[in-house]
Every structure is written in structure tokens, then in C-alpha cells.
Amino acid sequence: MQIDFWNPETITQVKPEMRVDFRVEADKSSDVESLLEQSGVEYEILIDNLKTVLDAQFDSNVRATGHDYEKYNNWETIAAWTADIAAQNANLVSRTEIGTTFQGRPIYLLKVGKSGSNKKAIFMDCGFHAREWISPAFCQWFVKEAVSTYGSDTLMTRLLNNLDFYILPVLNIDGYVYTWTNYRMWRKTRSTNSGSSCIGTDPNRNFNAGWCSAGASKRPCDDTYCGSAPESEKETKALADFIRKNLSTIKAYLTIHSYSQMLLFPYSYTYSVPENYAELNTISTTAVQELASLYGTKYTFGSGASTIYLAAGGSDDWAYDQGIKYSFTFELRDTGRYGFALPESQIKPTCEETLKAVKYIANYVLDHLY
């Protein structure tokens, strides 16, 4: 029986004693419950009717026309926002296009920082996986905080004076659009696959870091399909090309996902640990303390493979292997109560606490440039 894995991402990543979150179609739910009971597996129904919870994701049924930082914005709204925020804050923000998606949409990148000569940079992307809506919400929030607190918040001012932030608000734009128009639970890109009627590649299995060796699928119909080759997707290639072109300036890479409240660093494609493991572990320890200081949200942290599971072809491992030694993946709220259907009322607290961790990491990087 096909089920939709929410956490972990695929059957091969399920380990003994692990809690597993998955979604089943309504007409299969009683069969699944019988199977679990026959096998003596403890289970709990977290969301009885996903449609109800998804409808409630939009806390107020009054949809603001236009952009709102405390609401989920569709792509059209986000795209217009990227132009507006740059036009209104020309001293701090500029917008470029680093490529186009499979379906031809422009991939926008915002450069945030006070202009200066030979500044180092931090790259942060959101929206790899289409259904993780809280992720693009954070990239938008970060830019808002940058432009609105520059000059008043000491730390933010220091960061923007001394570093540039490259912010990619949504990488997998086609997939994100599809979650708004067709199917809320879509994850992958929307590219076609030769020899298969199944659509899409998992962009976070599509990088040249132990590509397709573990925790990734070679089957185009699977949610963790690694693609026909590394960087087969126009979106991942655009990101990788940009980072390669700017390797001398980019000193940290942050990629924002959901959910499970984790801060992960390399490696995910192998159990071996990176050369600066102790340093990454120390940074993470303080970063999650910073994050928890606001609302008490508890994060776990560690290297990807040992903390959760082997997963090859991820952008964080790839960036690290390019020489970017501060490379982190955030898995934002929650731990499964709502999962991908996180209500809009949690956007503000989630973004506020995550901002504290990101500012801490950025400040550390600024103090340890290489």
C-alpha cells in the first residue's frame, strides 16, 4: 500500500524505535489501522481529517490581497514582493535572477547588505520542498527584519555592514505553485522524466554529494527521486552555478526546511564526520539555545547521518564539499502535531526564534572568516 511519508522521508530511513509520521488516503485508513493493530505497532492519529487542518492553516478566511509576513503568500505575491522590497530599500537590497525553473519562471535572488568592497557573504535558501510552506515564510521574514531593524538593532546592523546575505526566497517555484493550485502535499520539482509518466525530482537529492548512494531513490515515481544525474534540475543547477561562481566570497550556507525542529550539519551522505565537526557542534549548541530562549522551542542538532538518517545528494553536504565550512540545514516547526500543515498563527513565533539562531550563526561566521 502506498503511503505518504512525512517524517522520515522514505521507508529506507525507518529505523527500530523510531517515531514515523505518515499520511494515508481516507479509504485506506481502516485497513492501515488493522495492519498496525495486527502487528502490535503503537500508533496515534495526529490529524484525523487533513483537509480540515489544511483549511485551518489559513487562520483567517479573509485573505489579504497583497503580501503579508504573517500569512502564507502564493508565488505571484512573493515574486512581486521581491521587486517591491528591493525598490523600497535600494540602499540595502538588490534583486537578480539566477536562472529559470523547468516551467520557465524566473528564480529570484535577493542580495541584502550595506554596499562595501570585498565583503564576504552568507547564502540562505528556502523552499526546496514545495509543501514546506513555513520555509519561504522565513526567508521573507529575514529580509523584513534586515531592512526594518538596520540602524536600530546592533547585531543586525553589524551583520549587514560587514556581510552580504544572498537570500533565495523559493528555489522550487514550480512545485510551490503546484501546492497552491493542484495538490498541497507535493514535494518535488515539476520536471518531466524520460521513460516515466511520473513527474519531478527531489531537489535535495540532486546535488553532487554522494549522489544517489543512500536515502535517495532511482525511481522517478518516488518522493526522494535523485534525478537522472546530479544537477539535472534547472533549479539545482542555477543554485550550484551561482555558488560556484561566488565561492571566494560565500563563507556560510544555510538551507531552510521543515519539519522536526532540528539543526543539522554535514555529513548526511556518509557517517564520517567533517573535519571541523567539533566547531559545528559547538556553534549548533549555542544556536539552539538562542532559538529556545524566546519560546522554549526545543531543537535537536548534530550531523545529518547520525542524527536522523543517511540521505545523499543534499545541498548542505555539497556546499560543504565546495569548501564552505559553515553549512547548516534548519528543520523548522513543528515535531508532527501539524507537520507540513503548520497554522499561520505559528509563522511569527517560528520566524522570530529562527532569526535568533541565524543571527547567532552569522555573527559567529563574521568573527571566524577564513
TrEMBL record:
<dbReference type="Pfam" id="PF00246">
    <property type="entry name" value="Peptidase_M14"/>
</dbReference>
<dbReference type="InterPro" id="IPR000834">
    <property type="entry name" value="Peptidase_M14"/>
</dbReference>
<dbReference type="InterPro" id="IPR034253">
    <property type="entry name" value="CPB_M14_CPD"/>
</dbReference>
<keyword id="KW-0121">Carboxypeptidase</keyword>
<feature type="active site" description="Proton donor/acceptor">
    <location>
        <position position="331"/>
    </location>
</feature>
<keyword id="KW-1015">Disulfide bond</keyword>
<dbReference type="Pfam" id="PF02244">
    <property type="entry name" value="Propep_M14"/>
</dbReference>
<dbReference type="InterPro" id="IPR036990">
    <property type="entry name" value="M14A-like_propep"/>
</dbReference>
<keyword id="KW-0964">Secreted</keyword>
<dbReference type="InterPro" id="IPR057247">
    <property type="entry name" value="CARBOXYPEPT_ZN_2"/>
</dbReference>
<comment type="similarity">
    <text>Belongs to the peptidase M14 family.</text>
</comment>
<dbReference type="GO" id="GO:0031410">
    <property type="term" value="C:cytoplasmic vesicle"/>
</dbReference>
<keyword id="KW-0479">Metal-binding</keyword>
<keyword id="KW-0732">Signal</keyword>
<dbReference type="GO" id="GO:0005615">
    <property type="term" value="C:extracellular space"/>
</dbReference>
<keyword id="KW-0968">Cytoplasmic vesicle</keyword>
<keyword id="KW-0378">Hydrolase</keyword>
<keyword id="KW-0482">Metalloprotease</keyword>
<protein>
    <recommendedName>
        <fullName>Carboxypeptidase B</fullName>
        <ecNumber>3.4.17.2</ecNumber>
    </recommendedName>
</protein>
<feature type="domain" description="Peptidase M14">
    <location>
        <begin position="71"/>
        <end position="365"/>
    </location>
</feature>
<dbReference type="GO" id="GO:0006508">
    <property type="term" value="P:proteolysis"/>
</dbReference>
<dbReference type="InterPro" id="IPR003146">
    <property type="entry name" value="M14A_act_pep"/>
</dbReference>
<keyword id="KW-0645">Protease</keyword>
<dbReference type="InterPro" id="IPR057246">
    <property type="entry name" value="CARBOXYPEPT_ZN_1"/>
</dbReference>
<dbReference type="GO" id="GO:0008270">
    <property type="term" value="F:zinc ion binding"/>
</dbReference>
<keyword id="KW-0862">Zinc</keyword>
<keyword id="KW-0865">Zymogen</keyword>
<dbReference type="GO" id="GO:0004181">
    <property type="term" value="F:metallocarboxypeptidase activity"/>
</dbReference>
